[in-house]
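The record is kept unedited without comment:

——
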Amino acid sequence: MILADPQASEALGARLATLVAPGDVITLSGTLGAGKTSIARGLLAALGLPGEAPSPSFAIVQPYAPPEVRLPVLHVDLYRIDDPDEIEELGLDDAAGDSVLLIEWPERAPGWWPEALALALEMLPDGTRRLTASVPAGWRARWQQI
């Protein structure tokens, strides 16, 4: 899938928001500026978040909960994680069943979310983004709606 601009990335996030449920994990990979946070912002806005969602780069985990959003979401940025063992300290496993996990930079934690909807963004020379999805069994029927 080709995403023409940040608005297209946000629109994809908004479409995902109509399909997510607690317990879902969506990973977003790609270089800096590829559009990972734009997808996350679109999803959060469609879930009801007023204003623009900040990047969780410094907080690492940015939680959102009702009534701020329709369902609980943990927006996670693993960019500053040096050792995958540090992920255990974030408590993501405890929250995973009750929340949607949006994980940026999942390559910092290989193997942690094998059943995630894995979205990879690549910047193309013309400024567009190529989105490649690895769609697990639990997402196949829903992904057809994208």
